[in-house]
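Researcher: Structure prediction, please.
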Amino acid sequence: MSPTTDATADSAGTAAGIEIRPAIAADWPGMWTILEPVIRAGDTFTWDRGTTEDEARARWFKDAPGQAFVAVRDGAVLGTGELHANQGGGGSHVANAGYMVHPDHAGKGLAKALCAYSLDAARAAGFRAMQFNAVVESNVRAVSAWQGMGFEVLATIPEAFNHPTLGYVGLKVMYRKL
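Model: Predicted structure follows.
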């Protein structure tokens, strides 16, 4: 069973009335309006900037115990996330997740609320920890947010990400137990 979160200002710093829940197919158009500009910008995610909509949908929606999820208010998708096993086999007890927020809602705690939802969902699915493999070091707001959510930086891989304007920057590997 997946958790559903009603994000409120006192629980996650987001505006009241935002619901975070598993995504359904009907959410995709709203999700794509968030994913596409992030993918095309190429400055925070390691996805190919030419990723098609069909490729993105196949990559974002996950099989159980993973899931895609959305933050919605009044039927509008404001942010989205995805959760899955970081590795297979002997590493399948560690989760991985990613989040994207509509630019109109950036800086309001929505990414943290999506992260909190994914931590609860990962715990409920039996994962023991969560690891982020590739947090772009120039994305200082994300690095700070994830540290505020209890993640620690295990390593920074130098020049592992070719940022479209900054050139080669590091990727941070971040981890926390559940």
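Model: Confidence is low (pLDDT under 50) at residues 6-14.
Researcher: Thanks, that helps.
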